Input
Amino acid sequence: MVIVVDDNRERLQKVMASCGVASRRKCEEYISAGKVTVNGVVVTELGTKVGKKDKIVVDGEELERQQLVYYVLNKPTGYLTTVSDSFGRRTVMDLLDSETKKIRIFPIGRLDYDTSGVLLLTNDGELSYRLTRSAKEIEKVYQVRIEGIIDQTAVNRLMKGIMIDGKMTKRAKVEILEIDQAHQSTLVSLSITEGRNRQVRKMCEAIGYKVKKLKRTSFGGITAEGLKVGEYRALKPHEIKVLYSL
Output
């Protein structure tokens, strides 16, 4: 099984990522650790370029170019955003059918165990890197149900940035969607361009509001519209182009 790439030579780590080995950063770690050979020679130089006739082996397994696939999942709460779990807990992979799971697919970024909504999955390590590791600002939109009636001062703080974990967040877009006086809660739309650990919850808690329910409604413009909770679908060609253009 010889890898097939375009006629133009590409960086080794990019080719590995596009074959679904791992994220580009992880592929770079494999190369630096001496776990990759090209045409039988161990390669540790990250700038190495390869072509379509080159034979690439990672940890003893020869790479095979696979068709790249892209999905959007309407993630339920109660599932870990990971490929596997050593404690046997449910992961988002349990929501995929057997044919889909035959492909070496993985989530792009993370959604907390108790957060629902839009989650992208792919075997395209290059795209995953672009959307989660690069310096590009990818907009993610959340609907947040918080305890209490939020005031304008709190909204302004969210918009300007909040200090969490010793670092200020970037400016956010905030819109009040609903005020429930009877149950003393507020539904807020919050758009951020970062992906820090439990960021939305920490931002709300920092201004004195506890999150009751959290759902991501958009990632880079991709939504789960039309999908029931737990359902997923393949991305359309124009959606993939949009993600690569970000």
Q: What stands out?
A: Residues 10-62 form a domain with the Structural Genomics Hypothetical 15.5 Kd Protein In mrcA-pckA Intergenic Region; Chain A fold (CATH 3.10.290.10). Helices lie at 12-18, 24-32, 98-101, 125-132, 152-160, 199-206, 237-245. The two ends are 33 Å apart (CA to CA).
